[in-house]
Amino acid sequence: MDAGAGRVARSAAPEKGCVDATDSGRVPAAAGVPRVIGRRALLAAPALLSLPARAQVRRNDLEALALPVKQDDTVARGYRRDVLVRWGDRVTFDAPAWNPRRPDPEGSAAQFGWDARVAAIAVPTQQAADGIPRAVLAMLHPTVDPAFAFPGGRDQPAAAAAMQGASLLNLEKRGRGWVVVDGGFQSRRLGGGTLCRVSGPTGGGGSIRGVLGLAGGCVTPWGTLLLAEGDPGPWLARLGNLDPRFANAAGFGWVVELDPFDPQSVPVKRTALGRFAHGDVAATLSRDGRAVVYLTDRRVGGFLFRFLSAGPATGEDVLDSGSLSVARLDGDRFTWLPLPAGVPDPVATAAKAGGSPLDTPSGLGLDPTRPRLLLACHGSPARPAGHVIELTAAEGDDGAATAGAVLLFAAGDPRSAEARYGRAGLPRGSAWPENPDTVTVDTRGRAWIGTDRGGRVGPQAEGLYACDLDGPGRGVPLPIYGAPRAASIGGAALTPDGEVLFTAVRHPGAEPGGNFDRPATRWPEFQAGVPPRSTLIGLVRNGGGAVGGPGGG
């Protein structure tokens, strides 16, 4: 056990936690360059201008930080992390106590899932009568690995179908901290048994039961949640003998829309947005008020898609009518190529239309302050470590036919990047992101980027990084958190005041070759016989204030 394990075990003790802006008082919970990448599979190598030395002013308060591989996690100096919700913890009020050695489908359907990814945080437009700030945090549970989820490694498909899906968690601010409300009114689980309406050009007004492999999500400007199903193939093969409905592949692989503030609302699968293996989704508005939805096709050589609604983003079914386009990259510009309406296979159609294959396009992050979109590309055989691209909509309009494109940074060994791109002032001794998978942009001009190698252990731990998007520190990612051994980072979201950064630690200890009884770590509890648990954590500054610093400068 690592030296820090005792600290982690003590902080993990409560069933639910609170993130507070003070050091005590826990509340128990009831310059980019134009030439970036060439078109065919990003053939042209990225070119970067040199940046000023690190001694100059930065917009964030982070410093160089190594992320060693160990059983415990690593937190940047001046910050702490609080354990909030773990695999098996209660989500809905009627959830039973967690018993990992006897998984029960009904109980699992009310508990936090085996895997975890932050999708989005939804904030009500109107304050409650009692004046307490509240929000709903949407968490996804994309996978369930039988080797680590079940004793003996023998798959239990019914329980796995219940463990995956999504958890909607109630948040509220108490004093200077934010609390995850245990069993709150709007807390909700989505999974293999959730009834959904099917709407749009191929919906026919019908319904289907179940969401599978939710991979990404966002809050829309019109107040709903969009949750994107990933590749349903592995799940359908796994569950095909469990229930006849899982034999209908056409019912899965869609984007699901729901009201996060109404626990009785029926999720809707929006077929106009296309059926494929999504990586992430991001929504905004065009200058004339139409809905704009960006979607990634998470494959090596996958595409970037954009949906533009036919009319303004008003009414319940705004996403049922519009046009789907694919991005073609020409030098430093993306052009949106319209696809025929209602195509059954958007991916094949996009290839024929001339869409540009990308290096496993994964995470999407919209800048809330300007028409700027970040795209995290996980990597490919040509560029194994991946990179992050910045798109700026032409004329400041996300509905425009083109967008500028620059490379924010190339992931991988910083020494190689420095030699290859001539980049000055890289932080010596600091971890550098490899395989960026998720990205979130805050209101202070910085991106939060999470890495994911899928449990493969490398020379450094997986990390969550802050990267300035403007100023002298632009394009230099600095770590704030390192995950325990074999864990990945599952996205990020900030509270409205910016004082808590939520992130998810995915499948700790799930190293290739291990199993339920022999994990690579038992984080976060470090108790014999207790398996490691995917966990939602909160990162806060020890002295209070905005995570990452106030920005500006």
TrEMBL record:
Region entry Disordered, spans: 1-22
Matching Pfam families: PhoX (PF05787)
**Protein name as annotated:** DUF839 domain-containing protein
